[in-house]
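re: that chain from earlier
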Amino acid sequence: MSAAMLTRPISHKILTQFPEPRSVFKYFLMCMETPRVSHKLDQIRNKILTVGKTIGCDCAVDTVGNVRLRKPASAGYENAVKVAMQCHIDMVCSKKADKVHNFETDPIEPIIEGDWLRADGTTLGADNGIGVAAALAILEDKSLIHGPLEAVFTVDEETTMGGAEFMDKAPFLQSSVLLNIDTEVDGQVCVGCAGGFEKHIFVPLQPDIVKCEEQIVYEVAVFGLVGGHTGTDIDKGRANALQILARVLSHAIHRSIPLRFVSLSGGNAPNAIPRDAKATVLVPADKNGVFEAACHEYLQHLREEYAVAEQKPQEDGKKAEPQPIGLTVQATNKGQFDGSHVVFTTDSTTKMVDSMLNVLHGPLRMIPGMANEVDTSISFSLSELPVKNNETYEGLLHVFCRSSSDYQMEQVERKLDSFARLSSKTLVAIPLTQTMRQPLLLLSLSPMSPKIITIQ
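^ sequence. v structure.
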């Protein structure tokens, strides 16, 4: 692939700012130019196939959409161990609340800041675009001496893991060793994989009838949180925007302010800690001043509580900077409720807030003997209301559990079931991904010192 195959002028400009050799960078910019939403991956799949054919690889696509490229061994190395590089082609699609971006159609906008490549208001897609780029660069490099080499680019890793789970059997892949190139830290080799499952918890909501002139419409928004990955960052104690919003509303309810939900939304990916959330609520007209004061009063406590955890990730040579929790409480539509939306009872609103407060979120178990390594965790990642189910209304809580133990995942699932039964909720399960713990390959990292870590 020549740089001419990049389609955007900004990509060509930024490519010139990278050091040689630029193969990895040009393929990563190709990934940034291409929408990579899980289950909607035709564009990036076709580009990988085009690159494979251009550099002379044998190309194939299996029944679930995984792409396999195969390159013959260098002369004299035909009998070497067959090795496959594996990466995934979808990305975590998360953006700032005020960023206008359609992940299904828009390219990721690159920004160079010093030695760093960033995205403008969205996730960068280095998970796992940099793996795709590395694999393509290796296949392209004619100077490398290697045995029989394959690269497999799997689909839907960020959602169902369907590409890895339902990959066609041999001869789609012929390698006896597979290297996954989807990690965060140099000099480390992962020899296992956490499994996981997702669940939807539905909270029943009861519509209410109110006198419009007695209610004020408020939008309450939490924004600007650090967020992070629900696997690698779940143990850092960072704020969850959904639970911060629930705590603010719960504080108002405990100040004897009756609230009625109109709408709620928060989070934008199952594997991302929510950075933003907002709710539209009705507040009695005679309580509006008290409501605003209660929300802002509680914000100060939250900022003190998360002053250490809510800091922008530290960069090389730079000190981490505090990132205060953002909150707005604004009367909308001149504060007048016109009755055009469904409103839910104060009891339903309180139950939804209580559910958001009490649903599991965070590390649940550390690996015995390795106090700093997470074994089992869960993330409360997404929420919305109203969700209409036939003639009834519900609020949605979406949770994502990870664990290196199938037994521990089963225990978490039982806790969620119990939570639903106690609260008269219903659950919908999303298929389980099993764990893989057997080390298949040991590599020498000399002269690096061996280090054991866990990556959920």
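The longest strand covers residues 370-389.
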